[in-house]
Amino acid sequence: MALGTLKGTANHLGPDVGTICLLPFRLLADMMCLSLLRRIHLLVFIVCTTCVVNVVAYDNTLYDNVAVYWGQNSYGATNTDTAYFQQPISYYCQDDAIDAIPIAFVDTFFGTGGLPVMNLANTCNPTDNTTFPGTDLANCSALASDIEYCQSQGKIVTISLGGAGGGVGFANDTEAQTFAQTIWDIFLGGSSTTRPFGDAVLDGVDLDIEGGSSTGYAAFVTEIRTLSAGASKEYYVTGAPQCPFPDAYLGSVIDEVGFDAIYVQFYNNVCGLQNYDVVSDWDFGVWDLWAQQTSPNPDVKIYIGAPASSTAAGTGYLPIGNLSSIAVQMRQSFPSFGGVMLWDASQAYANDRYDLAIKDALVAAGGTGFTYPACTAPAYVAGQDYTGDSQVSYNGYIWEADYWTDSAPSASSSSDWSAISACSGGTTTTTTTTSVSSASSTSTSTAASTTATATSGSCSGVAAWASGTAYTAGDQVTYDGDLWTANYWTENDTPGDDSGSWTETGTCTSTAIARVKSRYFKWL
Predict the structure, then answer these.
(1) CATH number given to 65-365
(2) Looking at 148, 175, 210, 504, which residue is catalytic?
């Protein structure tokens, strides 16, 4: 343990003990007899051992983790008060507020000499710092001890790839696999003469891909997983998609390969935190459905990504009381919730320690254990008409209708429903044509099954299956006179073929008068 770590922790035990940990033993020998010195040696051993034990290692299974990006001096980009400009990374590791720190960004994958380019704003960049010969990769080895200090405090430090406007992407899977080897060698557990952080070994990779295509990223993650298999430490893979589901760049990637955590950016989008009260906009529930039903890693954690101050993003910033309330509600409603991600460290510290405030709220809500809320809404009735704001229980979730609908709730981005909470104890109901006008309405028709199985019904408003169209779990299509529901992400798999991508959920029947449905009108 570093001396700074020992001093900072020992002082919590009292100033005298802290002094004992730090005073040279030669001075003590001049002051005390040999027998007393031996007792002090023993005390120092006990205290210093306690210092080490008190550091809690990062635990990805918790519900109260806080991830904060560092590296871009976001506050300095929009403010002139240099006191809050980005500090060395160790500055943000002095307490327990932050659990994970993605270093942002490697913003060019293939720069001069074939190596990536990393820009850490005012801390280390290719313009102001030396670069490795024949490359534009900055030598930031002065940060090695800072990174190792953060890790000694139980935090994980990862390297984030991409960022807005980054020159990133792959031509094919082979290129992606080669790049994974490069990242492994220069940042993670490999070896190279061009390691930007010297001997410091980072704890994984983060993908913040905001442009280009999805090509190669699944192969990249798979190769990182292969390289880290059997390693002496655990390596993490995280992603930071935009909140519209599915994400344009990482949507198919996270369906194909397992991620440990998803830092969903609930800002600068209509589904951002500023629209939390608009059920049809706020879509954390869809991300939880993905985590529970589609993700290759069933233990993946979903984070609320938030701006750490009003100048950190265009939209999405909320006062800490509002964010805390939302975060606690999501923690109590969805089992995949993992915590809050903030952009970025400089903004959080300038904004009255926004990071510490949200951490306190999450800790108070409880870091372990999840109790499913009861399915208190009436069971969904297949074929029934629902107006906007109606709530139903269906397939382990409570759903709220965004507007008038007679379709079944699903995780599709085009669904007429929004999942507002996971739940237990719900049932589905038999087919009926009763109209329900509000969330408080009840139904007298019940069935024992907890999974909807439609035998017949109108397919009005359900699009026909189309080759070349990508569908996500829960999407419905008509094909050959039947209604089909996608079991998971699929493209070019014909309903009824051997791929298993679709389940037949009913036979279409005609209706004399087509009902009017529109996501632009809310029926009252």
Answers:
(1) 3.20.20.80
(2) 210
